[in-house]
Amino acid sequence: MLCKRVAFALLAAVAAVRAAEDSDVTQLQKDTFEDFVKANDLVLAEFYAPWCGHCKALAPEYEAAATSLKEKGIKLAKVDCTEEADLCQAFGVEGYPTLKVFRGLDNVTPYSGQRKAAGITSYMIKQSLPAVSLLTKDTLEEFKTADKVVLVAYIDADDKESNETFTAVAEKHRDAFLFGGVNDAAVAEAEGVKAPAIVLYKSFDEGKATFTEKFDAEAIEKFAKVAATPLIGEVGPETYADYMTAGIPLAYIFAETAEEREKLGSALKPIAEKYRGVINFATIDASAFGGHASNLNLKADKFPSFAIQETTKNQKFPFDQEKEITHDAIASFVEGVVAGTIEPSIKSEPIPETQEGPVTVVVAKNYEDIVLDDTKDVLIEFYAPWCGHCKALAPKYEELAALYAESEFKDQVVIAKVDATANDVPDEIQGFPTIKLYAAGGKDSPVTYAGSRSIEDFVSFIAENGKYKAAVSLKEEAGEESQAAPAASESDAHDEL
Ligand SMILES: *[C@@H]1O[C@H](CO)[C@@H](O)[C@H](O)[C@H]1NC(C)=O
């Protein structure tokens, strides 16, 4: 046990065990999880690690929320990912704590509320209410402005199919938007639409957008995503993740003052209009987030500047900083990027002349040759020079690499690392270190490592997931603690911004 040497921690652990006995939070394991989620309509589950500071801070809040939600029949559960690695991996847990809302096993959404008891309680109560509010002539007007973006479906009272489709979309995206439904033909007519139709009301740009195609979940989702994104938005801590997961490139307009952002925004607006739904456009405050320019391979001390980031392949297209940002220059730049005639810029350290240690050093320029070599199982660590967990891992990782280098698998298994801050890699990295196995014959589906950071566990991971089932035997590790260092990083150890 972790706590055996530290009396204080031991006491704390005993206290925690006691508390667990009369807790309203249900501790779940692999064999109890499914049944619990099936048996309860609405479950909030926390995936945590006992060592994680944010998890500890959340614990009393989570307990209190569980108690106040008990009478509403809303269940809170938790899963210790150091004990239940498979379960956590199955749900894509990459950082701690991760909270997810379950409505059965097929409808899982990330929890995006606050981490305080009151916030959790109100968020979950909202989750338990119907996703679509039924509106009338009298309640519609107020509803239209109840949030920055609301979607209202105008449906005939007997049109079950459209109703069901819209309701399903609303259930899925209830965290992002407010959804309303109207089944009064006169109200629809007054709004200038004919059922079935959806109107998205927004507090910006043209104020509303209308969907009149046949109701189809995917088409509605796409419509909502495009129409809800401001023509020229703003990149900041609240919007960054949405832009990165939008599935289309993001064009950044860096400028230091609000006036300049406004000015460039309106100059480029016709381009944003032309590429609506193809490329998102957003300004970014260079005085606050100027450092992000270097992630796009722009110089971070020369503004205004412009760059496009292809978010799915993580390619960067910086616009020449010696040139002036004008409508015409950007129009032809964007056209070139879309047409593929402008090459992405790739940041890379030089390829090492020789590989010095047992760990193979990967840089952007040799990434493909080494990591995607289809004849080899490649375990790769994405690290940052400033990351403490990475430094702690380094000696063990070296040792692991040495074991393979000296084994019969030396030509089949590669243990590699890449400084992900100095090299553009195609992987989306959410925290450091991130460790993945690119198995031979399976380069398009790397497996992310979520076990503990012990050599033993790395070896079983490689043996289990690699093509060559390459297990090496461990040397006696005198004095090695059985409690391994944490695997996933805490969720705030992410990239800046
Ligand atoms: C959609 O169906 C539900 C369930 O039958 C019903 O309560 C609701 O009023 C319908 N919505 C509209 C807009 O007709």
Describe the structure in your own words.
By secondary structure, the chain is α/β, with parallel strands linked by helices. The chain folds into four domains: 2-128, Glutaredoxin (3-Layer(aba) Sandwich), CATH 3.40.30.10; 132-228, Glutaredoxin (3-Layer(aba) Sandwich), CATH 3.40.30.10; 246-339, Glutaredoxin (3-Layer(aba) Sandwich), CATH 3.40.30.10; 360-490, 3-Layer(aba) Sandwich (Glutaredoxin). It is built from 17 helices and 22 strands. It has helices at 7-21, 30-39, 53-70, 85-90, 117-128, 137-144, 160-173, 185-190, 217-228, 240-244, 258-274, 286-289, 292-295, 327-339, 364-371, 388-405, 455-465, and strands spanning 25-27, 43-48, 75-80, 95-96, 98-102, 108-110, 132-134, 149-154, 178-182, 197-202, 208-211, 232-235, 250-255, 280-285, 305-310, 315-318, 360-362, 377-383, 413-419, 434-438, 447-448, 489-490. β8 (149-154), α7 and β9 form a beta-alpha-beta unit. The longest helix has 18 residues, at 53-70. The protein binds 2-acetamido-2-deoxy-beta-D-glucopyranose (NAG). Residues 481-490 have a biased composition (Low complexity). It is an enzyme of class 5 (isomerase).
